[in-house]
Amino acid sequence: MCEKPEPITTKAAKKQQSILTNAMMVFAKEGFRNTDVQIIADLAGVGKGTVYRHFGNKEQLFLATAKFCVERMSQYAQQKVMQEKTLPELIEENGVPLLLRKIMLACAEFYQKHPQTIEIMIQERAEFRESIYPTHLMFREENRSGLDGIMQIGIDRGELRPTNVMQASDAITDLLWGCLISGCLQGQKNKLVERVESAIDLLLNGLVATDRSSNTE
Amino acid sequence: MCEKPEPITTKAAKKQQSILTNAMMVFAKEGFRNTDVQIIADLAGVGKGTVYRHFGNKEQLFLATAKFCVERMSQYAQQKVMQEKTLPELIEENGVPLLLRKIMLACAEFYQKHPQTIEIMIQERAEFRESIYPTHLMFREENRSGLDGIMQIGIDRGELRPTNVMQASDAITDLLWGCLISGCLQGQKNKLVERVESAIDLLLNGLVATDRSSNTE
Amino acid sequence: MCEKPEPITTKAAKKQQSILTNAMMVFAKEGFRNTDVQIIADLAGVGKGTVYRHFGNKEQLFLATAKFCVERMSQYAQQKVMQEKTLPELIEENGVPLLLRKIMLACAEFYQKHPQTIEIMIQERAEFRESIYPTHLMFREENRSGLDGIMQIGIDRGELRPTNVMQASDAITDLLWGCLISGCLQGQKNKLVERVESAIDLLLNGLVATDRSSNTE
Amino acid sequence: MCEKPEPITTKAAKKQQSILTNAMMVFAKEGFRNTDVQIIADLAGVGKGTVYRHFGNKEQLFLATAKFCVERMSQYAQQKVMQEKTLPELIEENGVPLLLRKIMLACAEFYQKHPQTIEIMIQERAEFRESIYPTHLMFREENRSGLDGIMQIGIDRGELRPTNVMQASDAITDLLWGCLISGCLQGQKNKLVERVESAIDLLLNGLVATDRSSNTE
DNA sequence: CATGAATGAGACTTCATTCAT
DNA sequence: CATGAATGAAGTCTCATTCAT
């Protein structure tokens, strides 16, 4: 039961985790510039010096926090969508449109549970502007080929209209982010999933009436 | 008629304009917290005290700047789309889908010309979070009924699929914002229009292949 | 009586003077690193920000203080020795050996009155080491040609032994500094003049018995 | 009796030596306040705690370093000058003036080889000011009687002019220090010996032309 | 009404010292 | 006895805001 898993690594890691978790909360709540590192240290139950020992300076602490957030998101979505299956299995099971929907909803779920992550991304841009490449976009780039691949398969399978795959990837991701950010700004952090859901459905099926003989009938 | 364009007020107004314009540039480039009010005063060619006399404090200066940005955007889009015509005329001329497309592109055009506006919106959230309602969302709310109305007409005319109008409005606006922000973050401020264009087209027509009957046939 | 001399320049200059004077005292008493700029500000009766406004940062404040010290020394010695006369007049009046003696004693007098200056020079070296050229050595370089010139004249007049002028200049200045520093370190800041006096006399006349004929006779 | 040269003590002594040697280098290069004890510990290959165990605190470590420097100097000069001979033998061999010259040059040689020692002395004053009696002056005091004695003998032997012995001792030592410090500050650490040599020669023989009888002849 | 010098609260960061391991 | 992670006091510097001129 009590397997005693590497005590040394664990203790140091625990402390780092604690600092990052609290940093996430405080940065999200107060904003980067408005955050006093002392507060984070206090909440994490460590001295201010310890925070600096581990992360160097406030900027690096923030960047580490941003990375931490995105990684948690990545893990969550991976687990939620994949559930130990392979991509072909998932496509076979769901079909491409439904799979895309599931992926987006999995992301939305995470952000609804941890809306601080969105605030952190906004803070990151607000503070660093062009000087760094946004953490969550790095995640997006890393997974872009996956998304593009799925879309291509969807087109090949005749489930998606034959469109430019990259533009479609951008559109679906931009839509997700638009929903998340607007949702946050409107103070509806607890309705992110449904907002994303309805938006994705509209994107998948289109707003325009498909001709459509049937309508006039 | 209006023979004396009150020179005094005008001079004061000019100064305010100058301050706001420079504030916009500096806030967008440096971020709210990283901006020294002195710099804005210098660029505007006035003393620091004057800035404070006109705007009270740094926060109010920023908020005035944000409002200034959004109003400029509003004017631009209005003019670009309406061109002295009435809404019914526009719909008759373009049809609803094309009109929606035009509206979105007009907005995108403005933001591509003045990407600082996007940065300002990000700064606004980053600094004030829940404490104020975002300036650009106020614009969105004000024009929501217009957008909703157009969509309803589209549905009634059989040009749009019969969907929840408010959800569709949200989706199209979220998509716009997603494109703008992601475009900015990716350092592609000069491709905002084409990004919005391809995304809107996808949203209008949908990703999923329609009347698949024909495909399988 | 009350001539009202340029009030603007004077007021700003007065404040700078006040800051420098107090900086000199505090730096000399506490050492550069051990000095809190706040203390200097308090003593000068200004805010900390004012000190930074005028001098940029602590290092520049210190360097300005060092320069201030050396300039005061320079003025003092100039006035004390020259007394409105020209160099030839002085030489004619005193002869070279006596003039050298007077110069050294004038310097020594200043340092005895303001021993902080010596401490400042020590601090300068202690803090900046090779990174800057010592302020008081710059003064020394500037006046080197003068000293060398006097010595050359002394040799030409047969009052000084024909030695290497530059080495002699170095020796006499090094002796001065050795006296000043050692005097300070031994806590005999109020005996600097007499220490210098006796040392200079020994250097002028030499330690070795001049054979010499007369002695053995 | 003491056949086992206590290996434990020796090992500890080795560590102390290593710490002191490295402390000397770092203190001389970085200055007292700018030195991070961690750096010394790293260079010495021990933990920071060990440094504190051995020396108590940073100040005591520095003072120990200063003492270490002066002792090394003392040993060097002793060995270089005395070479297993007694004082009378040396005087007989060289005569007093030449012996004085040798002593000064021996000191200068050491400082030229280890100019850090000079920096350490400057640091000592810069940091501690009146609070401690300078380490190298303690050495000077200890050997003062020796120097005074030699001078007295020189006078008695008719080799030196009959001057105040203590003043002469001070002058010659001050001259040495003036040369060392000025040489260092001018960035001529590798010319200390020649600087001292020429200065001492001038002090011994004087600047003023002697027996001017011959001149007028 | 405009100005910009002065202010000082506030936040980052360093590093001497301690102490649990 | 050695270590080095943790601590927090202390000091630098910035900049929003004020106010005398």
TrEMBL record, chains A, B, C, D:
Residues 36-55 bind DNA. Keywords: DNA-binding, Transcription, Transcription regulation. InterPro entries: Homeodomain-like_sf, HTH-type_TetR-like_transc_reg, HTH_TetR, Tet_transcr_reg_TetR-rel_C_sf. GO terms for molecular function: DNA-binding transcription factor activity; transcription cis-regulatory region binding. Residues 13-73 form the HTH tetR-type domain. Pfam families: TetR_N. The keyword Transcription regulation applies. It comes from the Bacteria. This is TetR/AcrR family transcriptional regulator. The lineage of its organism: Bacteria, Pseudomonadati, Planctomycetota, Planctomycetia, Pirellulales.
